[in-house]
Design a protein that fits this description.
With 320 residues, the protein is an alpha+beta fold. It has helices at 3-19, 32-41, 47-61, 65-70, 73-80, 87-98, 106-110, 117-128, 137-146, 154-164, 170-183, 295-298, 305-319, and strands at 220-230, 233-235, 237-238, 248-249, 251-253, 261-269, 274-283, 292-293. It is 43% helix and 13% strand. α2 crosses α3, α2 packs antiparallel against α8 and α9 (137-146) packs across α11.
């Protein structure tokens, strides 16, 4: 082994033992299901959010792959409520219905619903101790700075990641790399003087140059939402489209009914766009929709954050 790489591995190991987030629950288990669940939850979601509100309640509700696969999708979505990216929950449920045990092969893992290259590598490294690298967003940033890469392609980054991985200690190495990216090698104001990789980092003099930052413009989507009301029951429909599929929600219409009463606006920011909803009440003389629920029953359904805001707007309106 390259002496420099061996020295780097030693420094990473020492740093992780004293500075790493070794107390995270999915790092102190060898249960592949628990590790798989944590990796899926951590896609697009911060550790703090997963740890404080979702990981333990989900395992309490569905302690095994079998219990998850046997559950109704509505129950799984309700448990996932508020975590967002609901396709993750649907793919978890679908996978649990297909297999009884998590496979240890990267190729077989990637064949399962919702498991991409990085998640497959993470499960292989953390659940099965395979000598493979993990490359989520924080690790990508580290690799870009180590090699002064402004616009790297995935193929090159994976090649670098494989060349650097500590094959003797893949678990601690990969966890450490993610922690270094999350706590030291930050997008802004990185703590280079505290980083165990400082001596081999080519980009440490101008770390914020790497990688090239992409300017993002967040589009705004506007919708008219109608709450069809039959006495104290509100009409909801279960979504079948790709967006928020499987969740219950209020109907979006091109033009609200003439007799509909405007009650206000709610908005919600998603990763790729902001949604603004103008909300209308329509009092029906007889029920014409398929499903109606009281506000209490809606609280037991799996609904999105924006629909929850619409319910709260309605409740505020009737109180006034």
């Amino acid at each position: 082994m390259n002496p420099t790489l061996k020295s780097t591995h030693t420094k990473i190991q020492e740093w992780y033992k004293t500075k790493g987030r070794t107390d995270l629950p999915w790092r102190s288990t060898s249960d592949p299901y628990h590790i798989y669940l944590s990796e899926v939850m951590l896609q697009q979601t911060q550790v703090k959010t997963v740890l404080e509100r979702y990981y333990f309640p989900f395992l309490e509700a569905f302690p095994t792959m079998h219990s998850l696969g046997s559950a109704a999708l509505d129950d799984v979505l309700k448990q996932w409520e508020g975590l967002g990216y609901y396709n993750r929950a649907k793919n978890l449920h679908k996978t649990a219905g297909l297999i009884e045990e998590i496979p240890d092969s990267i190729d077989r893992l990637m064949a399962l619903p919702g498991i991409g290259k990085n998640t497959a590598h993470a499960i292989a490294a953390f659940a099965f101790g395979q000598p493979v690298p993990v490359m989520e967003a924080n690790v990508k940033r580290i690799l870009c700075r180590l090699h002064r890469l402004r616009t790297p392609d995935e193929k090159r980054l994976w090649k670098i990641a494989y060349s650097m991985v500590d094959k003797e200690n893949p678990f601690d190495y990969n966890q450490a790399m993610m922690d270094i990216g999350a706590t030291l090698c930050l997008p802004k104001d990185p703590k280079c003087n505290r980083c165990p990789l400082e001596n081999i980092c080519k980009g440490k003099n101008n770390p914020e140059y790497y990688p090239l930052k992409k300017k993002k413009t967040v589009p705004v989507r506007e919708e008219n939402i109608v709450i069809y009301l039959d006495d104290d029951r509100l009409s909801l429909q279960q979504r079948s489209g790709k967006f928020l599929h499987g969740l219950w929600g209020f109907e979006s219409v091109e033009i609200p009914p003439c007799a509909a009463e405007y009650i206000g606006e709610v908005s919600h920011a998603y990763t790729h766009f902001k949604l603004k909803c103008r909300v209308y009440l329509y009092f029906e003389s007889s029920p014409e929709q398929e499903y109606y629920f009281t506000p209490e029953k809606i609280g037991k359904l799996a609904i999105s954050k924006v629909d929850e805001k619409i319910v709260n707007l309605y409740l505020d309106t009737i109180v006034k």
